[in-house]
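Handout, section 4.2: multi-component inputs.
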Amino acid sequence: MSENRTFFRETVERILADTLDKAAIDAAEERRLPSSLYDALVENGITLMLVPEDKGGIGASVGDAAVILRAAGEAAAPGPLLETMLGQRLLADAGIDLTDGLLSLVFVDDSAIPAEGETEWRDAAIHDVPWSEAVSHVLVVARSDSGARLLLTQADGWTVTPVSDAAGEPRDTLTAASIPVVSATLGDYDALLRTASILRGAQILGAIEWSFRRSVEYAGERKQFGREISKFQAVQQMLAELADHVLASAGITEAAAEGLNASLAAAARSRLGDAADAAILITHQVHGAMGFSLEYALNSRTRRLMAWRDDYGSVLHWRRALAGNFAGLTRETFWPAVSDAGLPGAA
Amino acid sequence: MTATSLHLELPTLTPEAETLRQEVRAFIAEERSSGRLPPPHRIGLGFDREMTKRIAAKGWIGLTWPRQYGGQERSALERYVMNEELLAAAVPVGAHWVADRQSGPVLLKFGTDEQRRFYLPKIAAGDLTFSIGMSEPESGSDLASLKARAEKVDGGWRINGRKIWTTNAHRAQYMIVLVRTSTVEGSRHAGLSQLIVDLAAPGVTISPIISMAGEHDFNEVLLEDVVVPDDALIGKEGNGWNQVSAELAYERSGPERWLSSFRLISELVDVLGPDARAASLEELGRLISHLLSLRQLSMSVASMIQQGQSPNVEASIVKDLGTKFEQEAVRVVRNIVSAEDLISNGRAERLKALLIHAQQYAPAFTIRGGTNEILRGIIARGIGLR
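Output:
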């Protein structure tokens, strides 16, 4: 890991340890943002880390941001961190002035959006919008004929119908008869969705890793039949299988965050889908009834895995996309395509 | 970096490795066009002495070994790249596979200079096939319970015992056998030794074991008063268990653990074409995501070995995952073949043959070279449960 990246990771781990406790995580279910966490993240430049330096950011890479979000996922940090980090970067890339504070971000593939040049969005409706009441702006990335359209709106211009995800975090439905928009065209919709999906993948990986580690610890603490349950082969075999999932999904997710190529990203989210399913089943099986209580911290990761698993493209979406990259190849061209899809080597 | 004590580093392939990849591809293309490498109807490592000689002529056996022993002193990652190219193309590498992967490295690590000078150049030339004499009828996963013994005689060792599941013993010149040479109170692992047995020696009887896939790869090898010279001992007397543990680690993380049935997947992709049902693409996409993940992991482990680390738990994870992946591949291909009706009425005969053979072969994936239950025990110890 580079020196910069280690510094980012240590900074954010320290902030998470200092500002985020179970009460703050639980409060998110009452739509209260962990404000001391976000104050510290903003103060340390983390929310703008993906923005180029000449626009006031740190100019960090997606790989750097993935390291931060992996730590945030481990900590079950609520709130629009990914949304703000990536949203601000997209605004900077599109030449739109950055907004102060936090952003919500939503991708829409098939919604009616205003024509280019329009400054009003009429009969607007968007769904699954994270934390719309806690942010200053909502940024919509829409698929358009020319690629991707960015539509920036003021959060308080929307009518909010509260909806929660599986973790209890806000994912609202927003409607407006008419709302002012600042819009711009920016590159390739699928490439932007891919970046978002990798960053969400990093959070998923972090949550899986925390659940795995806690379960290994718990198996060493919990005694039944006069000995630690970690001494039973049935428990060992389950956790070894989860270790397989953890290592395999970590490798492909890290590669995807560095390589940013279409196949690696799709493979990472597909692989993480299986790893998340296994993590949920195995960590809860190891914890027994204990893990099922709201009191015990495991559920804060489990329910985020449920909420995130199919975010920014479902697991099945990424599987179809990945297969689509290879379908139609021949018995002789398939392997070269597989090997080319790997992370290109650094000299 | 990852949870608990598991460790991972992003692999970096050097320009030399990519150059070698292109050389191997050119070799395969030449073999194909000359008709010496027909697309196979079976999965697994084929056995072809002539192919092994042609690969040896390229300098690709013992690639990482010192030049003085016939090697090329190339990196572990270059060897990884070469192997994945050969395996993905289903090049029959069985005649040198064990010697290149296991027997040669064991001699390099524990053998005498004399042993290295004698065996390694011949392996690198593609002239020697080795077998592994570990399992016995009553000692499978519980290897340390083995009963084969060697007693010291004047100038050598006299071996008696029975080894089983010995791949290629009927085609190999040598077998490295694990036997008990002494009894140490309180330790089953101490007192085992590795000896090189000339399979043409008096007292060696090799009997075939035909697999349920209809192949003669396995054998039972009976050793009756087989006398080997003193210099047949590898490493130290009584240190066999430690040597074998190191040897088994070499064989866990290689691409053969997830590429031995690759031909089945590439054949499916070929026959399926671009227009498939969504459900088929979802199954295929999932399979490819596991393939790419395994490859990433396998390259990481090769990279870490290259840097002098010992990623033993990670290597066990590659084998556990890889062998399960190969079984899963058979299930997925069978389901897509069925959903898309690809092989009925005489269509896609090669895919049909591959699928039949792969189904028959699949139960062995998670058994050969150490069962997955044993691997998961090693992983459990690695993450601190045992």
